[in-house]
Amino acid sequence: MNAAALVNVAEALAACGKGLLAMDESNDTCNRRFAAAGLPQTVEMRRSYRDMLLTAPDLGHYVNGAILFDETIRQGTATGRPFVAVLSDAGILVGIKVDAGTQDLAGHPGEKVTEGLDGLRERLKAYAAMGAAFAKWRAVIAPGVAGGGVPSAACVDANAHALARYAALCQEVGLVPIVEPEILMDGGHTLARCAEVTETVLRRVFEELVRQGVVLEAMILKPNMVLAGLACPQQPSPSAVGAATVQTLLRSVPAAIAGIAFLSGGQPGLLATTRLNAMHARARAARPLPWPLAFSFARALQYPALEIWAGKDANRAAAQRAFLHRARCNCAALRGEYAPTMEGE
Fold first, then answer.
1. Mind listing the pLDDT tens digit for each residue in 132-175?
2. 199, 214, 242, 303: which could form a disulfide with 167 (CB 3.0–4.6 Å)?
3. 3-334: which CATH topology?
4. Which position among 25, 97, 111, 180 bears the catalytic label?
5. Catalytic residue, candidates 222, 312, 337, 345
């Protein structure tokens, strides 16, 4: 492991007021989105959609890295240029999702554990040979309700251990790990409950990362924002979300890490941008944060581009403009300068 080189890559991913493009959804997930949009669920349609996103003009002005899926990293443009080369030409680092998805945690109904450690070392080496500079592994935790037994210590421990082992393997083969412990938005939990569970999970994850010898300066954290559940009758303001999120991170995340890039977790694009902006507006008014806060959005960046594109080449330019608009708004949010008036631009 070349720790200095890994630190340089991690810092590049978190640098310059840009974010990350998450387009690592599995084929099944992509197909569900295509089905909802009335699009054919085929390999070529998925390739064409990814082509439209990755060739958007000046994408490198807004994102430092793009997280791909196994199928995507092997694909290319209609002219045959590999997507890896397209990204490299744009100054965008290539990342790859390497977990194998979630499965039920035995003995703990309703809880999940992420799998994929078997054979991971060799898969990571293969992705590095393809041009990947970083990787991502996602764990999902249901927040439950206070006193309800969810999440269980067994669930938190199992996912924290898997995240740490994955991260150590990444660094061993020369890839920067993005560590993604996601507290799900499903349910009626309050903002305070999400903050409590997020802090507990993050503390446990970093305990395991240190135990497994992960170089903290050479990793990126991809957490959830601290949010009330979708079914909670009391939805907090963006400023309340920003304050709770920053406070939770300050309590649980070491200052050593290279950066934090938030997942959107199914939030509507405008709301995710507004909440991200609130964090930076708060940070500017308070003490400086020990790490940069960025975004690693999927749907919150890609919609409404998918709807506009609709699988038609005639709509390609308009879809790319919508996609880049969302990226531009999120970059403004990283400076605390996003305003709703930008949506009319």
1. 999 999 999 999 877 788 999 999 999 999 999 999 999 999 99
2. 214
3. TIM Barrel (3.20.20)
4. 180
5. 222
